[in-house]
């Protein structure tokens, strides 16, 4: 499904940003990068350096000298813009965007991002179907190019891998209740020796408080052993 | 509510990344940045340059020389890690994270990010309550520091501004049906002059097809005028 999406950078100013974008594409399983008229010469050393493990995407990037050619293979083009534009083009929200890409099968989506400082021109926008503005604080709307692209890659990845966002997938090996009970018993015996449970009528409540504390800890086997040895150590007569 | 969150960068290697992080914080309405042992000298010129409009956050950043001091004012600390760690600490998903921050009132959250190359040490992780791994492609898990932080800022912002993610907020001023109808009438008259509706029994279907096309366009008033003048121009006898 990832092949449905191509990312188009229009006149990016800095090689570093192109590299950072490539890295993000690979992080979220995308491969297709098109660049229209990069400001710096191409191939670009800084783009290579900042792409880290995603140099393959930089190497395979398609370079165009106009937006028209760059969008020609797509069925639907979505422009990302930091500000509302006075152009009669449908502005969609992130959730509407996600619905559109989910509902349209056999459709190639071109996702178009403008230059760092100025954003997309009205000429570029006129070639798109929709305009999407990533919501931000009203006080500072200008997102870094690779941050915008990362957020969009992340949202598409999330749509296709929702299970990975739901539950913690790591099983913590919490000790069995038997082992936790042995620990509590060990502690209880030593505390009895030390005359801790005074007055005796409060012993039950005191034990319950200890249970509450220890059962809440969710220790693993190693931590149970550490706790047992701390308790033993504390109860020794040595000073 | 934004004051609930502080962002802690542990031993960041590059000033550029600190600047990019500050920019993202401001984009999503956060202000609190703490830095533990930045590798380069502080204050840092590159951090200032890449922070763009968020230099205020860089200026007010708190610098610590150990993680312990940096986390001391928070109630709950969440560590962000690119890999599963073999440590008995609860790993939570993004959605679990969002539930936790939504449910706990009067709680200050420290959100802790490790150095670019190595990630958080086990010592740092031991001071946190939870570990969160941002889901990525299995083939390339290493997210750029400012990308990880941007995604987390974005998710918290989304939680608190869900309305901004639902519907398109820009009202496109689509022309009234009256104006669209006038346009169609204008087109119809000219086409009749040109003998377009042949054979006459198909006239109704042909008109309906034209309606389908034009009513779908959602033009604004200016576009209606443009269309009308295109139609007039095409129908002229000049060559």
Care to describe what's here?
The structure is a homodimer of 239-residue chains. By secondary structure, chain A is α/β, with parallel strands linked by helices. Chain A has 2 domains: 2-166, SPOUT methyltransferase, trefoil knot domain (Alpha/beta knot); 177-235, no CATH class. Chain A is 46% helix and 12% strand. Chain A contains 11 helices and 7 strands. Chain A has a 7-stranded parallel beta sheet. In chain A, β1 (5-10), α1 and β2 form a beta-alpha-beta unit. In chain A, α1 (15-27) packs parallel to α7, α9 (177-193) crosses α10 and α9 (177-193) runs parallel beside α11. The first copy, chain A, is elongated and about 85 Å long. The termini of chain A are far apart. Chains A and B meet through α1, β5, α5, α7 and α8 of A and α1, β5, α5, α7 and α8 of B.
Brief digest:
The structure is a homodimer of 239-residue chains. In chain A, 46% of the residues lie in helices and 12% in strands. Chain A is an alpha/beta fold and 239 residues long.
């Amino acid at each position: 499904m990832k092949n449905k999406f191509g990312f188009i950078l229009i006149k990016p100013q800095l090689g570093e940003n192109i590299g950072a974008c490539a890295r993000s594409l690979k992080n979220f399983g995308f491969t297709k990068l098109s660049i229209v008229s990069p400001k710096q010469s191409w191939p670009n050393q800084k783009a290579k350096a900042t792409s880290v493990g995603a140099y393959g995407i930089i190497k395979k990037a398609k370079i165009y000298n106009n937006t028209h050619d760059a969008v020609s293979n797509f069925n639907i083009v979505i422009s990302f813009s930091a500000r509302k534009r006075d152009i009669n083009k449908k502005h969609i929200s992130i959730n509407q965007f996600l619905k559109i890409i989910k509902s349209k099968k056999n459709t190639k989506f071109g996702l178009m991002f403008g230059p760092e400082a100025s954003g997309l021109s009205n000429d570029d926008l006129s070639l798109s179907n929709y305009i999407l503005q990533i919501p931000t604080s009203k006080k500072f709307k200008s997102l870094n190019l690779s941050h915008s692209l990362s957020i969009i890659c992340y949202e598409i990845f999330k749509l296709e891998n929702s299970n990975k966002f739901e539950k913690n997938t790591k099983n913590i090996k919490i000790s069995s209740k038997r082992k936790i009970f042995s620990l509590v018993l060990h502690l209880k015996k030593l505390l009895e020796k030390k005359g801790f449970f005074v007055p005796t009528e409060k012993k039950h409540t005191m034990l319950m408080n200890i249970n509450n504390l220890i059962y809440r800890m969710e220790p693993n086997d190693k931590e149970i052993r550490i706790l047992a040895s701390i308790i033993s150590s504390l109860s020794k007569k040595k000073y």
